[in-house]
TrEMBL record:
Organism field: Pseudomonas cavernae
Biological process annotations from GO: nitrate assimilation
Gene giving rise to this polypeptide: nirD
Name the record gives this protein: Nitrite reductase (NAD(P)H) small subunit
UniProt keyword list: 2Fe-2S, Aromatic hydrocarbons catabolism, Electron transport, Iron, Iron-sulfur, Metal-binding, Nitrate assimilation, Oxidoreductase, Transport
InterPro entries: Rieske-like_NirD, Rieske_2Fe-2S, Rieske_2Fe-2S_sf
Length: 108
């Protein structure tokens, strides 16, 4: 697996996101208040809303269109909603955000 250097962690605000062009559309990289990073396709499974524009709280993001709650770690919608946003491997190394270059992981 190859890791693509995206940016310094400090370039993504806490409780913020950054969009990266992916092979199948935009990928949103999220930073939580405790500096964890997660990456999901930037499309809500409900109506395709831009998750990168949603509010981040804890380890979830709320879609800005209809407030669906999406788990950042898995991409799964929180019940009673059903669906998932494809997730991507991402990590922080030496203060840099790195994104795995490969196909999106499928939801369970």
């Amino acid at each position: 697996m190859t890791w693509l250097d995206i940016c310094a962690l400090d370039e993504i605000n806490p409780l913020g996101s950054r969009i990266v062009d992916g092979p199948k559309g935009d990928i949103a990289i999220f930073r939580t208040s405790d500096d964890e990073v997660f990456a999901l396709d930037d499309r809500c499974p409900h109506k395709g809303g831009p998750l990168s524009q949603g509010l981040i709280y804890g380890k979830r993001v709320a879609c800005p269109l209809h407030n669906w709650q999406i788990e950042l770690a898995s991409g799964d919608a929180v019940a009673p909603d059903v669906g998932c946003a494809h997730r991507h491997q991402v990590k922080v190394a030496n203060g840099r955000v790195l994104l795995a270059v490969k196909a999106a992981a499928q939801c369970a």
